[in-house]
């Protein structure tokens, strides 16, 4: 009996128990990760040593899952937010949270409210860390808990940092409809961008308000969000006007500490 035959293109990969298309897609991510200023298709093709058609097909697939993104203004491909989320899992669980804790403590002490840290994961925000208020212990979600991205303070802060196209894509894939969000939702995100902090006005729980601001990563993409939450009797409209800039300021400091911009 002769040696087993393998399809020519997949021979070595099959023998090693690997999938060629996956290896190629990962190689493209590695190439883009090494070129933070983005790359044109011909540059990626040359470095990855793949055909133009194969490279474009893989990039288009990765783009649909937000692992890469194409900027039509400069014609360059960049690492996408989903790749950063996956790659940052190690950091989020260890150094990332540890680095954020001192800033959260300071925010808690400045506002006397519970400070929270969360990341976007799909259609939710996952709470990574929490420093409870010494005066009024009140929170909607504990560490590890999930909150809908569209109505939580941290979620709205992160969404406001996305391009409009991505915001529409996130909402389109959610169970909630655009009509259910109301005609003012887009305006709310615009206001959030302008003032640099988001407000959850009892959107998650009756009697609880949240003020949040986004923290950016090295590629100027939203990395996470930091917030304070408290009872409406404490976070009044007048007080939010003072607390909002504090949250935004601490978020900017944390952005710098984490190497963001």
Automatic annotation (TrEMBL):
SUPFAM superfamilies named among the record's database cross-references: GAF domain-like (SSF55781), Winged helix' DNA-binding domain (SSF46785)
Keywords assigned by UniProt, alphabetized: DNA-binding, Transcription, Transcription regulation
Lineage: superkingdom: Bacteria
Keyword rRNA-binding: no
Gene Ontology molecular functions: DNA binding; DNA-binding transcription factor activity
Keyword Electron transport: no
Example GO BP: negative regulation of DNA-templated transcription
Ranges of residues in domain IclR-ED: 82-260
Domain HTH iclR-type: 19-81
Protein name per its UniProtKB record: Transcriptional regulator, IclR family
Species this protein is from: Chelativorans sp. (strain BNC1)
């Amino acid at each position: 009996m002769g040696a087993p035959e393998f399809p020519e293109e997949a021979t070595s990969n099959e023998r090693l128990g690997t999938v060629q298309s996956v290896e190629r897609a990962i190689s493209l991510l590695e190439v883009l990760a090494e070129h933070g200023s983005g790359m044109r298709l011909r540059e990626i093709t040359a470095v990855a040593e793949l055909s133009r058609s194969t490279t474009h097909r893989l990039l288009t697939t990765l783009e649909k899952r937000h692992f890469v993104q194409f900027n039509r203004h400069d014609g360059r491909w960049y690492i996408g937010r989903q790749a950063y989320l996956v790659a940052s899992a190690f950091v989020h669980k260890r150094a990332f949270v540890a680095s954020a804790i001192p800033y959260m403590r300071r925010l808690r002490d400045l506002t006397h409210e519970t400070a929270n840290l969360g990341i976007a994961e799909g259609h939710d925000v996952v709470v990574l860390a929490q420093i409870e208020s010494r005066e009024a212990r009140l929170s909607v979600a504990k560490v590890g808990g999930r909150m809908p991205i569209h109505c939580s303070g941290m979620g709205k802060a992160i969404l406001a940092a996305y391009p409009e196209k991505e915001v529409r894509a996130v909402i389109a894939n959610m169970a909630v409809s655009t009509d259910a969000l109301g005609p003012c939702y887009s305006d709310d995100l615009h206001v959030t961008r302008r003032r640099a902090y988001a407000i959850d006005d009892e959107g998650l729980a009756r009697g609880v308000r949240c003020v949040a601001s986004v923290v950016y990563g090295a590629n100027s993409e939203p990395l996470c969000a930091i917030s304070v939450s408290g009872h409406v009797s404490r976070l009044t409209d007048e007080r939010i006007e003072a607390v909002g800039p504090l949250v935004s300021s601490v978020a900017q400091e944390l952005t710098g500490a984490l190497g963001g911009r």
